[in-house]
Structure formats: C-alpha cells, structure tokens
Task: inverse folding
C-alpha cells in the first residue's frame, strides 16, 4: 500500500498551521519557541516527501532537510539564551508581559 | 566550471568571503585565548582591517571577472549583481565599526570580542545571500545573518530593553524563516532541484502541467517570509521595537546592511524561480502579473511607514518607520522592471546607506550628549554645533528626497521607472507619502534651528562619528550635484550588458 503524496503534504500543512497558531497565541515564551520548531519540522516533512514523491524525485531534499534541522537547532538555542537573559532581568517568561516598549 | 575535485576550482575569486571568515575565526580565537588581556579597541580595529581587505578583494574581482563564475553548481557565484551588493555591505559594516568605536568606549557593550566577530559573521551571511543561486546556500546565508543579528541586538544582556527586543526579533524572525522555508520546500518539490537556474524552466513546466496553484502558494509563502528581512508591509511590526532596544551601531547595521541583503535575496530568488512561468493564456510572464501583488505590498509599506512615523518622538523608532518607508520605495524598481532597474536600486541603496549611517552617527552623538534618545535632544543644535546641524540638515533633506542631494535623484529614478511601466497609482502613492514624510524629516530641522535647547554648551563629537557624518554629508551633496558620476560608475562596472548584473546566466 502506498500513501499518496498529498497526505504527506496535508499533514505538513496542518503541522505548520498548528505551529503558527501556537506561536501567535501562546503566553509562555518556551511554548512559542516550541511552536516555531513545529513550523520548521513541517518544512522537513515536506522536503522528505518531495524527495521521494516529488515531480522530479531527487536526494537534494533530504540534504536540504539536514541543513534545516541544523539551523533550526541553532535558532532555538539563540532563542533560549535570549529568553534566559530576559528571565534574569524580568523574572517572567510570559510573552504578554514583554511590553515595556509599547507607546 | 566542471569541478571534479576541490583543486580544480578557482578558489581565488572567493577571497572576499575567505577574508571575512578568516577575520571572524581569528577574532574568535583571540577572544577565547586572550580576551581580557588585550586592549578593547583591538578587536574593532582588527575587524575593520579585515573588512577593508575584503572590500579591496571585491574591487579586484570587479576588475577581473567578466562572465559570472559559479562554484559547486552555482551554490556560490561571483557575478556583477553580487559584487555590487557586496560592496554596499562592506562599506556598511565598515561604517558600523567606525560608529561602534565611540559606543564601545562608553562601555555600553560589555563583550567587545563577540560584538566584533558576530558583525563579521553577519557580513559573511549577507555576502552569501547576495552571491548564491541555490536554495540551500541562500537559506544558510540568510540564517547566518539572522542568527548573528539576534545576538547583536541582545548583546547588552543586562538591559531589559535589549533582551526584550532580541526576543521579539528571534520569535518574529523564526516565524518568517519558517514561512520562507515552506515556500522553498514547495519550489523544491515542483522542480526537484535547489539550483535556481535549473528551477527556472522546471517551475515553468510544472505550472503548465496543472500545478499552477502550488506555484502560486509557494510565491505567497516566500514573499510573506522574505518581507521580514527588508521590513516591508505584512512583516514590519518588529522593526520599531528591535531598533529601539538594539545598540545604535547595530540599529544602523540592521537598517542598511540587513535590509540590502534581504533585498538582494528577494530579487534573485523571485526573478529566477518564477521567471520561466507563463500565465494560463500562455501570453505573458506570470511575473508581470505577480508584480501587481508586489506593488500592493510596496504601496502599503510606503503608507504604513510614513504615516506611523508621523507620531514618533523616539529617534530610533522614527528611523525604523523611515526605514520601512524606504523599503517600500525600493520595491518599486523591482515591481516595474526595466533594463535600468539594477542601476536604480544600487543608486538608491547607496544614497540610503550614506544618509542613514550619517543620521545614525548624529543620533549616537546627540543621545550620548543629551542622555535622551528622543527627538527633543536635537533642540537648539544649530547654536551648539552649527557644522553638525548643517550636515544633519543635508542628510535629512536627502532622506526626504528633496533636490540637490543624492536622495532626490534616487527617488527621481524610481519615479521614472514606475511611470515608464505605467504604474500610475503607485507613482501617486509614492509622491503623496513622500510629501507626508517631509513633516517628520523636517521635525529634525525644526528642533535644530527653531527650538532652544537646555544648554548652549558645544557638543563633543567622537572622531568615528565625525568622520561618518562628514563623509556621508559630502557624498550626499556630491551625489546630488553630479548624479551622473555614480550612475555611470554603477552602469559600467555592474550592469554594462543591461542584464541586471548578469543574474540570469548560469555560472561557468
């Protein structure tokens, strides 16, 4: 039994939307960073599915996904580091309390 | 170029990138091994030297390279398009280092080593963005620039404003890069390659064989993500907060280098990936239809930037909205492509670079002198430092786009290209919003000449800032008096074949 490529794409799209919803609505900054990871993982799913079932199947997609994963890890590391610095100054991880610059 | 092994490749053309990378690695090692014992200014000077050397290497490439040269199937390539942008980045980063000398002296940034090599790594990322024709290297370059600028924004880690703006930057940047990547993954799926030159024809085939909807979806995702880097309409909200919290030299760097790099990436990616797609009637390029949507973004960006800037009193927030407005202007030549678009973009970016850096140097001087980052810090400047006030006037007039400055001709060229393409409503929006921008740009002039400041004491201008302001004001004036010189220079060195700096040709 083969799974058609559209189901992979659909799962990836749903994952992306869940991630976007989480990134835009959650209060906790750690959850926001996690949701961004979900969005990036949706991309990985796409790339891998296309590498096997795309219009012109090629290994490049898997290579690309390796780069994506590495960069995503670096990005979340920077995010957590900034968050820890923020926590030390403000003692909060709630996104809605980061509003000192509103005017 | 048929690369069978590493040694058959002509690596010498990659000297600019190698110098920047080498400088960054050297500084990182120095900081690790002897960070505390070395004089603080050393890091900045070493970094500045490597930036200048990289500029010289780019200049050498411009003289010797005619046809585009590709490395590893165009993962990196040396062409006139990339060279022109790289020259802009290098001068921008050199200005950033000059500006940061006074900032570092004040002990505002505790980590001199990190600060210097992160700027260099960001420069490397920008150079890769401007000179790659492959999705993978483009993305890695983009993230190299993004990640280093997240840290640079938050480098004053004991300040709440700095932390907060860095976190906002990370989150909005992460979402934007996820959008970009999602669009890229669709492009890859439809073409089976990450090479942009192969992609041109394959995306065209895919669009003709019933995948037109997916081509459009990928375009929407890509544009939604990429507008983040240039701070254009749907993705501009981060700019004021991030600019406010970042150290002033980093703000100037974000406003110029990061924006220009994003622009280089968008132009190459969109033109190459969608350049081969015909519309359903098979008559015209899809790109001409898509540029209608891009012109909506351009119009919205101009309106939002200029209208929101009107009510700002904080200097950096004001500059952020002014930068948003300029991103809108810069999209015009891209929307209405002509053979001269490339000259127009580079000329405008040049005028924007000197104007913005000069003004940021003045802002740094004033905010240091008055201990406020608000517009009222400029009050009575004419009576305290007349030369500085006149220089700032020239820069502000250039950013507003009034005559006898480089900014006027930059805007004039954009206006002509929009008119030549018959985009009348875009022209109208540009003229109207430029008029609106006079109000807030003249806020500087009103403060300097017509308000009285709290003191009459003369202002002490740090050497680095004085140098930048002097060079910027002079260049702005000369660009306004003799606009032919820079245009002719750009045309001769970067666009002599009227082919957008040779981006369409695969590298040899």
Result:
């Amino acid at each position: 039994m083969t799974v058609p490529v559209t189901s992979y794409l659909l799962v990836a799209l749903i994952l992306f939307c869940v991630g976007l919803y989480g990134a835009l609505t959650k209060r906790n900054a750690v959850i926001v960073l996690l949701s961004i990871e979900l969005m990036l993982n949706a991309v990985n799913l796409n790339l891998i599915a296309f590498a096997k079932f795309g219009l012109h199947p090629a290994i490049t997609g898997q290579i690309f996904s390796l780069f994506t994963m590495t960069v995503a890890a670096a990005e979340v590391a920077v995010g957590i580091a900034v968050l820890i610095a923020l926590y030390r100054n403000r003692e909060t991880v709630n996104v809605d309390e980061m509003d000192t610059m509103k005017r | 170029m048929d690369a069978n092994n590493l040694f058959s490749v002509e690596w010498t053309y990659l000297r600019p990138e190698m110098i920047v990378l080498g400088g960054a690695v050297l500084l990182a090692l120095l900081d690790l091994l002897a960070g505390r014992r070395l004089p603080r200014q050393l890091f900045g000077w070493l970094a500045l030297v490597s930036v200048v050397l990289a500029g010289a290497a780019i200049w050498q490439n411009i003289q010797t390279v005619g046809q585009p040269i590709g490395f590893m199937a165009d993962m990196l390539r040396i062409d006139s398009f990339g060279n022109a942008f790289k020259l802009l980045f290098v001068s921008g980063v050199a200005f950033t280092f000059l500006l940061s000398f006074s900032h570092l002296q004040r002990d505002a940034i505790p980590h001199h080593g990190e600060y210097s090599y992160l700027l260099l790594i960001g420069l490397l990322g920008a150079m890769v963005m401007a000179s790659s024709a492959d999705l993978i290297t483009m993305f890695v370059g983009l993230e190299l620039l993004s990640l280093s600028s997240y840290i640079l924004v938050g480098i004053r880690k004991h300040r709440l404003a700095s932390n907060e703006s860095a976190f906002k930057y990370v989150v909005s940047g992460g979402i934007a890069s996820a959008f970009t990547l999602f669009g890229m993954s669709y492009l890859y799926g439809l073409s089976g390659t990450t090479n942009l030159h192969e992609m041109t024809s394959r995306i065209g085939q895919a669009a003709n064989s019933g995948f037109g909807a997916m081509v459009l979806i990928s375009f929407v995702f890509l544009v939604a993500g990429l507008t983040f880097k240039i701070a254009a309409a749907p993705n501009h909200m981060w700019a004021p907060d991030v600019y406010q919290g970042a150290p002033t030299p980093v703000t100037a760097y974000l406003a110029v280098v990061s924006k220009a790099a994003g622009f280089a990436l968008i132009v190459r990616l969109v033109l190459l990936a969608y350049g081969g797609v015909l519309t359903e009637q098979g008559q015209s390029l899809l790109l001409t239809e898509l540029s209608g949507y891009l012109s909506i973004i351009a119009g919205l960006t101009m309106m939002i930037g200029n209208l929101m800037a009107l009510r700002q009193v904080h200097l950096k927030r004001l500059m952020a909205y002014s930068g948003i407005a300029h991103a809108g202007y810069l999209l015009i030549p891209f929307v209405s492509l002509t053979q001269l678009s490339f000259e127009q973009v580079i000329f405008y970016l040049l005028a924007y670079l000197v104007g913005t850096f000069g003004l940021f140097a003045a802002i740094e001087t004033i905010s240091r002198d008055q201990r406020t980052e608000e517009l009222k810090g400029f009050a009575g400047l004419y009576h305290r430092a007349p030369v500085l006030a006149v220089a700032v006037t020239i820069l502000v007039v250039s950013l507003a786009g009034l005559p006898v400055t480089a900014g006027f001709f930059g805007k004039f060229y954009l206006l002509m290209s929009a008119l030549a393409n018959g985009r009348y409503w875009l022209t109208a929006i540009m003229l109207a919003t430029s008029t609106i921008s006079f109000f807030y740009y003249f806020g500087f002039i009103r403060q300097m000449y017509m308000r009285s400041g709290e003191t009459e004491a003369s202002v002490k201008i740090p050497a680095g800032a004085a140098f930048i302001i002097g060079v910027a004001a002079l260049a702005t004036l000369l660009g306004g008096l003799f606009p032919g010189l820079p245009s002719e220079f750009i045309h001769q060195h970067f666009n002599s074949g009227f082919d957008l700096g040779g981006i369409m040709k695969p590298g040899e």
User: Anything to note?
Assistant: Residues 340-501 of chain B form one domain.
